[in-house]
Design goal:
With 371 residues, the protein is mainly beta. The protein folds into two domains: 8-155, Immunoglobulins (Immunoglobulin-like, Sandwich), CATH 2.60.40; 159-365, no CATH class. The chain has helices spanning 8-12, 137-140, 286-294, 311-321, and strands at residues 15-17, 21-23, 33-38, 42-43, 48-57, 69-74, 78-79, 94-97, 103-108, 117-125, 145-155, 159-172, 176-194, 197-216, 222-234, 237-242, 248-252, 256-264, 273-276, 300-303, 306-309, 334-337, 340-350, 354-365. Residues 1-27 have low confidence and may be disordered.
């Protein structure tokens, strides 16, 4: 370790830093410590976050001059802002000026499936001009950078299910006619917790569209469109059924309830909500009733600082939903690979004046357990 005490400036005289900063007696030296505040420390692959750096201090406890530079390097992810280091430094990463003491770093997590941890290093950039190199033996061993902090980011890899639900109805009795057409796609992220049970980590609305038209004879047509869809409720568990060879034969998927908001001139009135669930009847309404009740319960509990499966609540949800894994709409009907498969179901009812159709399509990307 080379000399870095407060008297270093006096002992070594004048030297130049990046951006031609001159450190003289009383000026202080490069940053020696920093406070690191990431907005969070767990990310999905490819997700971004902001890391705020504050409270820069030199070795004497003073704030460094604004022109002093730091280097930020991510082991596997990317730093999206900042400048490229000068060619004289032979450094990789992105550099930032200390400025008035607050620096925001924009970081993007790696996407590779085998990366579960990433390290972001923050270092001071130390540059000594060639003419000063021979004046003190300590210069010869001085590095280009000195690390002043780091932050570890956990990359949370989840399995993904995509569910598309389509509900279409049309009627025309000669006096009035109307059409309602709603389609919604959600993305469910989940992870393995026990045996063939998987916890839902998040549900996101990937796509929605909707239209309602209504016309009475001799009157102008009314029309409204779907303006927004908001998540209200979902149950927290997926259950996989396997055959003797270990292939998945059915997946009990989460029921997802959405609130809908419409804009325009409604006719009879479009639906205020929609439930993304199987479209064919099976044991009456037991699916919705059982899952709605179980959806209020968490499948994870905290003991000390650890989060572990809540087997009591899992067992209760299992009792409510286990037999529903046999629902025909949950059966695997197409398969791309052993771990990428899905199912589709359609329902239709029609009479002389009306038709009502629903479809329920899903696909799952599921990694081997423990991967």
């Amino acid at each position: 370790m080379y000399k870095r005490l407060g008297f270093l400036v006096c002992a070594l005289g004048m030297f130049l830093l990046p951006a031609q900063v001159t450190a003289q007696e009383g000026d202080g030296v490069w940053p020696d410590s920093v406070k690191i505040d990431p907005t969070k420390k767990e990310l999905l692959p490819g997700e971004t976050l902001t890391i705020r750096l504050t409270n820069f201090k030199d070795v004497a406890g003073n704030q460094p001059k604004p022109e002093f530079m730091i280097l930020v390097q991510a082991k596997d992810g990317k730093i999206l802002n900042g400048g490229n280091p000068g060619t004289s430094h032979s450094l990789t990463g992105k550099e930032f000026a200390v400025g008035l003491g607050t620096v925001d770093i924009v970081y993007k997590a790696p996407t590779a499936a085998n990366i579960e941890k990433d390290i972001i290093n923050i270092s001071s950039i130390i540059t000594v001009p060639p003419e000063e190199m021979g004046k003190d033996p300590d210069y010869q061993d001085m590095p280009n950078t000195e690390k002043i902090g780091e932050v570890e980011i956990t990359i949370r890899h989840f399995d993904v299910a995509r569910i598309t639900y389509h509900d279409y109805s049309h009627y025309d009795d000669g006096y009035q006619r109307g059409t309602t057409d709603v389609e919604v796609k959600v993305v469910v992220m989940y992870r393995h917790i026990s045996f063939r049970y998987y916890q839902v980590e998040s549900v996101k609305i990937a796509y929605f569209k909707g239209i309602e038209t209504y016309k009475m004879k001799d009157e102008p047509e009314k029309k409204c469109t779907l303006a927004s869809a908001k998540l209200r409720l979902h149950n927290p568990l997926l259950i996989f059924n396997y055959d003797n060879s270990g292939e998945v034969t059915a997946v009990f998927l989460p029921m997802v309830m959405l609130d809908l908001e419409w804009t325009g001139d409604p006719g009879i009135g479009p639906p205020d909500d929609i439930v993304i669930e199987p479209v064919n009847s099976y044991d009456g309404d037991v699916y919705s009733a059982a899952v709605k009740e179980a959806a209020e319960k968490s499948v994870i509990k905290t003991e000390g600082k650890k989060k572990i499966p809540d087997m009591k609540n899992i067992a209760e949800l299992m009792r409510a939903s286990e037999r529903l894994t046999n629902h025909p709409d949950f059966r695997v009907t197409f398969r791309f690979t052993k771990y990428y498969f899905g199912g589709e179901a359609n329902w239709e009812r029609a009479d002389e004046n009306a038709i009502h159709k629903k479809s329920f399509t899903w696909e799952v990307n599921s990694r081997p357990k423990g991967k």
